[in-house]
Amino acid sequence: MIEIQPVVPEDIPEIMKLVSECWKDYFADTSEALLYAACGMIVRNNYLEPDLSFKAIENGKIAAIVFAGTADSVSNPEKFYEDRLSVLEKGEGEWLKTQRAYHIKADTECKKLLDDTTFKLALFMSTVKGSGRLLLDHLIGILQEKGYKRMALWTDTSCSYDYYPSHGFTQQSSLKIPEYSTPDEDYVLMTFTKEI
Fold this sequence. Notes:
alpha+beta
């Protein structure tokens, strides 16, 4: 049986492990320290509002997580970011700085879509079939009760971005990111919305 609970700060280390498992192939050629830093930034950058952050528990373990935010939400990953910079090798620290700047750019682009009726789906991950849908439906129900009618999110070409148009999302913007693009392939940041 899957149980839905609010995410509490004490869950962050376990959530970071969940994120690390999902992103380990992307970071296959990097150190454990950089993987930890990058995944920590992903989690802390998106943990916007505790009352809009939920986990699905199955057999005592986190099976899925969802974080959401509103137009007024602000994350504060700076202490973690500064701590990680102090222990990373110079090249890895530079990469993390670039990644932090990218997250700020992506969040700024997504924030343009937020208003009194549009919330941000900030982080959504599931490792057990069915748990993610249950969790997302729970979050959407709460936000609909608060008057929200649409969700917005950002993603990029490092993710399975084709998922969104095939599941009723409409692309709102597309922005080439030169820092991550190569001569053979553009790295593109995209924003999407969906009516709920």
